[in-house]
Please model this.
Amino acid sequence: MSGALVSPDLFTLCKVLITGIMKIQSDAILASAPVGSPVEPLRGIAYFLMEDWFLTFNAWMIAITIMVTWAAAIQLLTLMWMERKFYSRLQDRYGIMISIWSLPFWPFSWWAKRKNKPTHKGLGYLQNVADGVKLLQKENITPATADSAMFHTAPVLIASSTVMIFAALPFSEGFVIANVPMSLLFILAAFSLAPLGILIAGWSSNNKYTLIGGMRAAAQLMAYEIPLLLAVVAVLMYAGSLNVIDIVHKQELPLAMAGPIPIPSWNVFSIPQFIGFAVFATAMMAEMERIPFDIPEAEAELVEGWLTEYSGMRFGLVFGFKWLRALAGSALVVILYFGGWSGPVFLTLAPSVGSTVVPIPIIPHEVWFLIKVYLLYLVFVWVSWSVPRVRIDQILNIGWKRLIPLSLLAILLAAGLAAFGPALGGVR
Amino acid sequence: MALLDAYVPVVLFLLVALSFPLLTFFATRLFRPTHPTPLKDLTYECGELPEGEAAIQFHFQYYMFALIFVVFDVAAVFLVLWALMIYGTASGVGPGASLADRLVVFGPIFAPMLLGFIPILFVATQYALKKESVIHI
Amino acid sequence: MAVDWQLAAFLVLSVLEIGGSIMVVTTRKLVHAVFWLALTLVTIGGIYLVLQAEFVFLIQILVYAGAVPVLFLFGIMLTRRKIMEEVPAAEIPQTPAAPTPGEELP
Model:
């Protein structure tokens, strides 16, 4: 698997790491408790540390922590920062600029006089961290007439089902937690658990307006899941498998040559898949509850929609998980239609660490994946902040009456071309 | 059993994913103040006092959309299953098969499935959604 | 000790499922019943997975846990508001006392 930085597998890397750490600890304990000394039972701990099931369990825990931190912390902050800077530039202003140089203590701007402090001269990446810290220390207000059990369970339901998407979403061939045989359907199933949590959240706040927001959100999210499923059927006909890694592998072969540059056979370059891409991208924008499909969270009308009554970290969690769904949605569009993480590897450095040679590709697959996801996400943000909001009955109209016939057309064309295309001269 | 081995990390991930929001909630107890006042316990209606119960005029269309969703979800699942069986990597044609071979394999399934099932599905969606001329939601 | 992980997973999922289904029929608040129903359906899907039917597991989550509880909730919300709250004990209809066996049979 040349080209991926995390190779062959995230779990294998973590197992190597944890074996090394445990071996160092185990050797230290064995050296400090020789046979015959009064602390001899400590040797049992040393043998326990090197047991296989213990190492495997710890390796999985480290791999899961790395994936959750990467997706739900680092990528989340990066997406939020990119969106805020991008739409600020669309609105002809600078956007967030608080940076680490705004901190008023050593070694940051402690020397400047009060009127010369450079508080707003940075990139603004830490603004979202500051917002998170602010939400951490807000008071947790529960309405007195709310159904307390459901009120507190709904954010847990939404948060866990959104984080479960990242169990099967790969960032490259090796950077995946669980390569299950039908990972595409697994990801869509994790997406579809959200309307229940949103409806329970909206109902349990005992507020008429959150109830309206929750019901509209559930109706919208359910209406746009069928175009998602149907567009996936069209991709399945071309790829032959529901495994995400296989779908990306099918898109790596070159389609044609434009001079010296080979054009890869991305799914978006074929006619039925292009229709499927339009359907999938629109349905994904509605699943992400993004403007123009923003009615459940209509800021000018329902304050925050179904999450009005949440405060403090509960609000932070459900608010942040909207961006996590945006990351998962953009990643899914890139994987299905834009060739996933495949991209040319220009150079492979091969330094040797100790006795093994560690290949470092430039540019690795993870970086290609992130580049494509960020560009697609910026297109979504661009559309979001340029168009007005669509009314709820128009949203349901588009979902049921316009997108489903389009996706059925895509399935018909894809079925024909996938069956007879390769024999008719490679028509895609 | 390779299938169950592939799902072991999913189970571990589920445990981590369930504990992640719970730990966040309990961790914030250290940070946040607790000063309940009667005004804070009211529900939020843009600054006004909430009137009446939180019961609204429920529209029937919500229930109808959910019902239609269940029906067409199952129909879409049948399409996924069909596509997986016919176009899957275990199907009888490879990339080098000729047009005649493909017609033999795909033809008998193509005609009734695609020329029968999908148009019926399409007509069914249009019929089900034409029953309400204006969507009151 | 050799642990039969398949049996252990099946037992855990069965306990969750039976507990969930008992909670569905005995809870006083209808919306709680829908939540327990969703849990029951998800654990049934888990049992499908233990039996190595992965596609059925995924479709169970997609269709059942994603759509059917929402359908139930919408149906519940169509009825009177009081239905959605706890049913007080006075309103539960009492069955009339059953005749003792042997009285009515000739």
Remarks:
- Strands of chain A lie at 254-258, 261-264, 347-349, 352-353, 356-357, 360-362.
- Residues 52-90 of chain A form the longest helix (39 residues).
- Residues 33 and 40 of chain A are 6 Å apart (CA to CA).
